Amino acid sequence: MAAITDTIEIARRPEDVFAYIDDLERHGEWQEDIVSAHVEGDGPTKVGTRAVEVRKMGRREQTVTYEITEHDPPRSFAFRGIDGPIRPVGKGTIEPLDGGARSRITIEFDFDAANFGGKILRPMALAQARKAIPKGQQRLKERLESGAA
């Protein structure tokens, strides 16, 4: 079971929601801790795609590289961090509601501790993520429903 699970409903089709989430370089538009993001390589997002983000972690900025481990548009996606003492691991599912006119997005998230330092940092990182994920989900909803995305 993931340490954090968060669900939100959005008045947009699953295809629209997935397409916006799938644009990894735009994650900073709805995740306020992201300072910058870029995708390594060319082409559409798929299993194996890697992205590098600079995130605010408390008073510091941390570079995080993650890899897409599951990619099933418009139903699900998953990712895992590949560097650092604590590595994010997450999965998202998008369910159609009202015949596909609306969507329910569920995010499952945790951190793997890569070493002793990671075990020490994990509780603080989870505390920050417990606050950030619902805020991000709300901002995602607002952007998609306003047509800004």
Which keywords apply here?
about 150 residues, alpha+beta, 7-stranded antiparallel sheet
Protein structure class: alpha+beta
DSSP helical segment count: 2
Helix content: 25-40%
Largest sheet, if any? Answer: 7 strands, antiparallel
Strand percentage, roughly? 35-45%
> Which outline best applies?
globular
Mean pLDDT: 95
Question: Measured on Cα atoms, how large is the radius of gyration?
Answer: 15 Å
Which runs of at least 5 residues are low in confidence (pLDDT < 50)? Answer: none
| Number of DSSP-assigned strands | 7
Strand order of the largest sheet: 1-7-6-5-4-3-2
How far apart are the first and last residues' alpha carbons, in Å?
31 Å
Q: Which sequence of SSEs, written as H and E, runs from N to C?
A: EHEEEEEEH
Detailed description of the structure:
- A 7-stranded antiparallel β-sheet has the order 1-7-6-5-4-3-2, covered by helices on one side.
- The mean pLDDT is 95.
- It is α+β, with helices and mostly antiparallel strands and 149 residues long.
- The protein has helices spanning 14-22, 116-146, and strands at 4-10, 34-40, 50-57, 60-72, 76-81, 86-97, 102-113.
- Strand 5 and strand 6 (86-97) form a beta hairpin.
Give a nutshell description of this structure:
The protein is of the alpha+beta class. The chain has helices at residues 14-22, 116-146, and strands at 4-10, 34-40, 50-57, 60-72, 76-81, 86-97, 102-113.
Structural topology:
Layout: E1 4-10, H1 14-22, E2 34-40, E3 50-57, E4 60-72, E5 76-81, E6 86-97, E7 102-113, H2 116-146
Antiparallel strand pairs: 1-7, 2-3, 3-4, 4-5, 5-6, 6-7
